[in-house]
Amino acid sequence: MNLTYSLPESIQAILEKNKKTNNPLNTLIRQGGYMPPNIDLLVDAITALSMGKNILLKGPTGAGKTKFAETLSNLFNQPMFSVNCSVDLDSESLLGFKTLSYEDEKQVIEFIPGPVINAMKHGTFLYIDEINMAKPETLPLINGVLDYRRTITNPFTNEMVTAKDGFGVIAAINEGYVGTVPLNEALKNRFVVIEVPYIKGEQLKQLIQTNTELKDDKTIDLFVKLSADFIQAVYQGKLSEDAASIRALLDACDLSVVIPPKRAIQRAIIDKLNEEREREFIYNLTETLF
């Protein structure tokens, strides 16, 4: 299966460079990479990162934001250090921590770098997942990392760290979820925002074919239709975004190779939901299709 895109020369250069690593775009997709519903998403993200800008992937849960970030990392042939935000995120989780170790049989204090310092010093990507789950007072610690300065004074060592060439920041956000807080303007203005919608139609079919064990075309088409019904129901307010997660749908596709599709959907999707109304709605949709 080949995907051919008409890309600007600057983007083609990145893909050509990537071919030298024997890992072109269509191979990335087969290996579990992100398949964009619109090529502009990929072009815009690559363009922004190529220009040294930070990007913020914004979209519903399960739409593939983390896969998108991993695919960008592979396209640039860049390792990626990750931060998973929560209310417990603190400076040590971001920057690193001190610990006791031994050097020539003497006890010394050693600093263990965290993902931010590691990404800066190695000149690689930094991925900040669910950035709006962090407490508002935590992320300003790295404001200097996210703007033109690309520097930070490590509070644990007093070292001034400046990011090496190649350093870039990709963040992801799910809006409106319990425990999230709105991003302040100073933080948001440090990012180029890219909306990541659900994958649908032919793109979803290709994703199922290349990323799951399910190979039966008729069953795949039914799962694509089921997903479209889920997404429509989300837009109508009948289902939460969790119910339409593409990640959960792919799990159901895998399970359906061994167990009946209706049971696969129950295990991968229905049983995750807390609202009886949503569970019943999906159950009825499943009964209709399968």
Task: Give the key terms.
AAA+_ATPase; AAA+ ATPase domain-containing protein; alpha/beta; 13 helices; single chain; Rossmann fold; 290 residues; two-stranded antiparallel ribbon; 42% helix; CbbQ/NirQ/NorQ/GpvN; ATPase_dyneun-rel_AAA; 9 strands; 2 domains
Summarize the structure.
This protein is α/β, with parallel strands linked by helices. The protein is built from 13 helices and nine strands. It has a five-stranded parallel sheet with strand order 2-5-8-1-9, sandwiched between helices. A two-stranded antiparallel sheet has the order 3-4.
Overview of this protein structure:
The protein has 290 residues and is of the alpha/beta class. It folds into 2 domains: 9-195, Rossmann fold (3-Layer(aba) Sandwich); 201-289. The chain is built from 13 helices and 9 strands. The strands form 3 sheets. Strands 2-5-8-1-9 form a 5-stranded parallel β-sheet, sandwiched between helices. Strands 3-4 form a two-stranded antiparallel sheet. α9 (201-211) crosses α10, α10 runs antiparallel to α13 (276-289) and α11 packs across α12 (261-268). The chain is globular. Residues 1-5 have low confidence and may be disordered.
Topology of this structure?
Blueprint (H helix, E strand, L loop, with lengths): L8 H11 L5 H6 L8 H12 L3 E5 L6 H11 L4 E5 L6 H5 E8 L2 E8 L1 H8 L2 E5 L13 H4 L4 E3 L6 E3 L5 E6 L11 H4 L2 E5 L5 H11 L5 H19 L10 H10 L5 H8 L7 H14 L1
Parallel strand pairs: 1-8, 1-9, 2-5, 5-8
Antiparallel strand pairs: 3-4, 6-7
Helix pairs in contact: 9-10, 10-13, 11-12
